[in-house]
Amino acid sequence: MLLNPTVLITGASAGIGRATALVLAQANATIIATARSNEALIELSKECAELGQPIRTLAGDLNDHDFIRALTLFAGEVDILINNAGVLTYAPILEIQPDDYVAMFNTNVFATLALTQAIAQGMLARGRGHLIMVTSTGAREVFPFAGAYCASKHAISAITRSLRLELQPKGIRVSEVAPGLVDTQIRKNNNHPEVLAAQAQRKTVPLTVADVANTIAHVALSQAPSGSIDFIELRPFIN
Ligand SMILES: NC(=O)c1ccc[n+]([C@@H]2O[C@H](COP(=O)([O-])OP(=O)(O)OC[C@H]3O[C@@H](n4cnc5c(N)ncnc54)[C@H](OP(=O)(O)O)[C@@H]3O)[C@@H](O)[C@H]2O)c1
Q1: Percent of the chain beyond pLDDT 70?
Q2: Is 239 a residue whose pLDDT tops 60?
Q3: Whole domain around residue 171: which residue ranges?
Q4: Of the listed ranges 32-46, 137-151, 225-239, the one predicted with least confidence
Q5: Structural domain count of the chain
Q6: Whose C-alpha in 54, 138, 157, 196 is 20 to 30 A from the C-alpha of 204?
Q7: For ligand 1, which residues put their CB under 6 angstroms from it?
């Protein structure tokens, strides 16, 4: 494996992505971090610099094709792309609003595909690279009030498996990391009473962002020379 890979990570301003950027920076990866919040990226950058691991950041919206082009140019040669950015709105399936389900498909599926298409071109030209997709346990099952989110994660998981079929023979690894429940900002965007009542009944003890970040870092840094970690599902213990 490459000793100091260049890693482009999306959704690095918060939660799992931020924690993953920190773990990989400390493992001497060259990090390019992106998200919409420039302020949060500057904070991450300062924290990495204090650890003696400078990173590069570029803020923008992955739903903007001009930004995807700019990010691709800014990033240059990327060894590992970690597609982590995502959004989630919980609501009963009959009540979820078009703005919300469209936003989930736009960010979780179409923007992820568009960035992957852009970055994978360079990987194909070099005959090597690694795409890591952060999906969810909701990529294989469905949960109450999360139907549209789970559908978006099923979709990006299907795209991930298609990418693997087409790109692995050309030297590009394609891995899917599917975590279960983690208490991050993504879950805070809820005010529907049924959703809040269900959350109050929750028994699962969530994973931590460190659990997920360390798993993603393992997938990024520990691939066998003649094999590939295709899929990891990381589930919280059942209590
Ligand atoms: N938390 C969980 O329980 C859980 C479980 C399984 C899978 N996941 C997946 O893990 C990934 C990270 O989630 P998280 O829990 O860490 O959530 P989070 O704390 O809300 O972080 C989401 C990240 O995505 C970025 N983002 C969202 N929309 C964007 C856009 N249009 N353009 C660019 N960046 C965008 C956000 O940054 P800005 O707001 O600054 O743009 C933020 O950095 C997601 O794909 C999520 O579906 C989460």
Answers
A1: 99
A2: no
A3: 6-231
A4: 225-239
A5: 1
A6: 157
A7: 10-17, 35-37, 40, 61-63, 84-88, 107, 134, 136, 179, 181-182, 184-187
Does 167 fall in a domain? Answer: yes
CATH number at residue 172: 3.40.50.720
Q: How many angstroms does the Cα of residue 225 sit away from the middle of ligand 1?
A: 30
pLDDT at 49 over 70: yes
CA atoms within 13 A on the CB side of 74: 20
Is 153 considered catalytic here? Answer: yes
In a domain, 23, yes or no: yes
Dist. CA 83 → ligand 1 center (Å): 10
pLDDT for res 88: 98
Determine which one of 153, 170, 188, 203 is catalytic. 153
Residue nearest to atom 20 of ligand 1 (CA): 186
Answer yes or no: is 74 within a domain.
yes
From ligand 1's centre to the CA of 169, what distance in Å? 30
Alpha-carbon distances of 71 from 60, 64, 91, rounded to whole Å = 8, 11, 33
Structure tokens, 130: 């690694």
Residue 212 has, within 13 A of its CA and on its CB side, a CA count of: 31
pLDDT at 147 over 80: yes
The residues, any chain, with a CB within 8 Å of residue 158's CB and separated by 6 or more, are: none
Whether the model clears a pTM of 0.85, i.e. scores above it, the answer is yes
Residue 163 placed within a domain = yes
